[in-house]
Amino acid sequence: MIKVGIVGATGYAGSELVRILLGHKDVEIKWYGSRSYIDKKYASIYQNFFQLVDANCMDDNMEVLADQVDVIFTATPQGLCASLVNEEILSKVKIIDLSADFRIKDVKVYEEWYKLEHKSPQFIEEAVYGLCEINREDVKKARLVANPGCYTTCSILTCYPLVKEGIIDPNTIIVDAKSGTSGAGRGAKVDNLFCEVNENMKAYGVATHRHTPEIEEQLGYACGEKITINFTPHLVPMNRGILATAYASLKKDVTYEEVKAIYDKYYADEKFVRVLEKDVCPQTKWVEGSNYVDVNFKIDPRTNRIIMMGAIDNLVKGAAGQAVQNMNLMFGLKESEGLELVPMFP
């Protein structure tokens, strides 16, 4: 059995990790870390785990935790993992960080967009960007994985095949994305109150959202050059899910069959990426509660552009599910173990 510790177990992503890992046949959760609820019963915070989890919350002492588990998930705010990790800890245990601390290779870019001083830049180069469909072989050998952001997972997987194959001009990419409110976390914020969110839709982080450089960096690797995109997120009144609609200029005339063949080239053998049938647009409801990514596209010959669409559950493939997928690869397990989650509908 793989012994697991979760730091930040009482956030939405942390609780989703607990939900998924309780159904994983090769895992035992040993540590439910939560600085806010030390010594409180975990099931008293999330009553859905009543009689399923009989453990108290513990602190975030990674030095002690590293001696007790095989892998640590850090589902914590930006900056915490970087402030706690050190060589001694990494020599004992694997770490999968769900924050942005090790996603961006240029520490100056991280500090500019996150307004934080990076506390352990010496590990940035080593950290593997944990988008399994693209970096699978590197993840298998990693001891530190940077779990991708939710918006970035959806946006990158939606655009990646066409960027990689040079079909579109990557500097013309515009990503318009919508997310459910769980993406904002569990902390109390006026903007996330029911009366603020219900019957409302709003853009936020316009031209400043922190996932922008992450998308640019990863798609830049795909095309072999630095790129600049527009990314605008929106908050919509639903619990979970992300829908990304991306637009880009085509470099040449293409047919539906040619573009479909490109998507199939990259995703036909991918368990968790579903390329939908012609003219079927992804919907968040079709992936809710699952680790699937639904993608599709539409060519617009009138404007010589292509519209690429993707949908994920932000808490599963956008966070906890992807983290478990990374864990499975790191420990040589079946990649889909514990993740055979049928989407919930309605």
TrEMBL record:
Family annotation (PANTHER family): N-ACETYL-GAMMA-GLUTAMYL-PHOSPHATE REDUCTASE, CHLOROPLASTIC-RELATED (PTHR32338:SF10), N-ACETYL-GAMMA-GLUTAMYL-PHOSPHATE REDUCTASE, CHLOROPLASTIC-RELATED-RELATED (PTHR32338)
Family: Belongs to the NAGSA dehydrogenase family. Type 1 subfamily.
Active site residues per record: 150
Pathway as given in its UniProt record: Amino-acid biosynthesis; L-arginine biosynthesis; N(2)-acetyl-L-ornithine from L-glutamate: step 3/4
Reaction it catalyzes: N-acetyl-L-glutamate 5-semialdehyde + phosphate + NADP(+) = N-acetyl-L-glutamyl 5-phosphate + NADPH + H(+)
InterPro entries linked: AGPR, AGPR_AS, AGPR_dimerisation_dom, AGPR_type-1, NAD(P)-bd_dom_sf, Semialdehyde_DH_NAD-bd
The protein's name: N-acetyl-gamma-glutamyl-phosphate reductase
First-listed, main subcellular location of the protein, grouped into a coarse class: cytoplasm
Subcellular location: Cytoplasm
Underlying gene: argC
Enzyme category, top tier: oxidoreductase
PROSITE patterns, sorted: ARGC (PS01224)
GO cellular component: cytoplasm
GO BP, sorted A to Z: L-arginine biosynthetic process
Boundaries of every Semialdehyde dehydrogenase NAD-binding domain copy: 3-142
A Gene Ontology molecular function term of the record: N-acetyl-gamma-glutamyl-phosphate reductase activity
Record keywords, A-Z: Amino-acid biosynthesis, Arginine biosynthesis, Cytoplasm, NADP, Oxidoreductase
SMART domains: Semialdhyde_dh
Organism lineage string: Bacteria, Bacillati, Bacillota, Clostridia, Lachnospirales
